[in-house]
Design goal:
The chain is mainly α and 421 residues long. The chain has one domain (3-278, 347-420). 69% of the residues lie in helices and 0% in strands. It contains 17 helices and no strands. The chain has helices spanning 3-16, 33-54, 66-81, 89-111, 116-143, 145-154, 157-167, 182-191, 195-214, 218-234, 243-268, 289-303, 314-320, 333-343, 348-378, 386-402, 408-420. The two termini are 20 Å apart.
Length: 421
């Protein structure tokens, strides 16, 4: 592997892991795992630009779709221009730098020759790490509260504030969304010949689904169900030989759902499927109808602002509008994050509409149309694991259709998957 590929490899690896402080107790954001990841990605991007300038005919990983590139760059330019209308430049910059880094990841994955097997290894290894991390959160909360204090010193401040806040609401939000990789892991399971590795992958899949149910988050459960159905469909021609794997996996999941139902009822007085039907507004829960109201609000804002309100500035719009003021005023990062979870647009289309205006929204829709058209051509290609990455992207799209397209971890997933495809 070249220097650039090594930087990309370890950069992606660090991005997918929990954001750990390099020095226990030191909450400086420049001494975290995410900071290392950013440094590696920026270094590799600059190195790639220099390399391309010196070697203009260097072979790349994929055929370049110039129409796709045009819409991506145009959308980026429009997003940049929203600084003109942004009331809070700091909030703009926070969102802008994440988008910029996401695009760097896209071009790096698109322009370098990294075999799909290496991407598979990164995803599999980091999925195992994040599953273990989430399991420890569950265990420490139930068995030993002292471990939670230890976590607060090891995990970066902003990430831990978000996790701790959701734990106080009996939810486990860690923003890794391993559910989108169920089709990929299932495909690896079907093609695996070693019985030990098959068992390992079955356990990993079972834990992913289990944790999505335990998380008490509707989107994660929905993505698990979609992931399982798509995984079976894209491997339908292969699973006849290994029916016992599917039966074992299905039986294990059914047993886990029964146990988890009991556990959730004892903890929160409702079953996991009732999270979809709650109709009372509270700090912990918001009815699904409220998501439609947020989209309507975004349409109203966009109708009066050709460039929207600017990246990351929807908070400022709400607080300046007496009829849309936050129910819970943000006093720190955790409260601001929670306020955004309550009031921010829980839909990627609505978010682009309100932050970049009708023009940015139009180019985003056109870009998605190009993605969809290209994916239809590639979905039946037998080349490696590309169909699994395509399904991962569209399962992920379900997530951002039902949630705000923040924080940066979601933006990175979006552009990395497009770069791989």
């Amino acid at each position: 592997m070249s220097f650039i590929e090594v930087c990309i490899f370890f950069g992606l690896f660090c991005f997918r892991l929990p954001n750990i402080n390099l020095f226990i107790g030191n909450q400086n954001q420049f001494f975290t795992l995410q900071a290392i990841a950013r440094f590696l990605i920026i270094t590799s991007f600059i190195s790639l630009i220099i390399k391309r300038l010196l070697k203009k005919h260097e072979k790349t990983n994929n055929h370049i779709d110039y129409l796709e590139m045009f819409f991506i760059l145009t959308l980026f330019v429009i997003s940049t221009l929203t600084i003109i209308v942004a009331v809070n430049p700091t909030s703009f910059w926070e969102r802008y730098k994440e988008i910029l880094l996401g695009l760097m990841l896209y071009f790096l994955c698109k322009e370098t020759i990294i075999l799909p097997s290496k991407f598979n290894f990164i995803i599999l290894l980091t999925t195992v790490c994040t599953v273990i991390y989430e399991l420890f959160l569950h265990i420490s909360q139930v068995i030993n509260a002292g471990l939670m204090q230890l976590f607060s010193q090891i995990i970066a401040y902003k990430h831990w504030q978000m996790v701790a806040l959701k734990l106080s609401e009996n939810k486990y939000q860690v923003d890794y969304y391993n559910e989108i990789f169920i089709p990929l892991i299932f495909t690896l399971l079907i093609s695996e010949k070693s019985k030990i590795r098959q068992l390992f992958l079955i356990i990993l899949l079972s834990l992913i689904v289990t944790l999505s149910i335990l998380s008490n988050i509707r989107t994660r459960l929905l993505c698990s169900i979609i992931g399982i159905l798509i995984a079976v469909y894209i491997n339908r021609k292969k699973i006849n030989i290994k029916k016992y794997i599917i039966l074992l996996f299905g039986f294990f999941i059914i047993q886990l759902i029964i146990v988890i139902n009991i556990q959730l009822f004892l903890r929160s007085d409702f079953l996991f499927y009732e999270r979809w039907t709650l109709d009372e507004y509270s700090r912990d829960f918001k009815p699904l109808q409220s998501r439609l109201s947020q989209i309507e609000d975004s349409m109203q804002v966009a109708s009066n602002n050709i460039l929207g309100v600017g990246l990351g500035n929807y908070y400022e719009y709400i607080n300046s509008n007496p009829t849309k003021r936050f129910l819970y005023q943000p006093s720190n990062y955790a409260d601001k994050w929670h306020s955004g979870g309550l009031e921010d647009v829980h839909n990627v289309f609505g978010q682009y509409l309100v932050e970049t205006g009708p023009i940015g929204f139009l180019f985003f829709v056109l870009l998605l149309t190009i993605f969809f058209k290209n994916d239809l051509l590639l979905i039946n290609v037998k080349r490696s694991f590309i169909p699994s990455y395509i399904t991962a992207f569209w399962i992920f799209f379900v997530i951002i259709m039902l949630n705000p397209f923040v924080p940066g971890s979601l933006i990175y997933i979006f552009w990395v998957l497009r770069g791989i495809i």
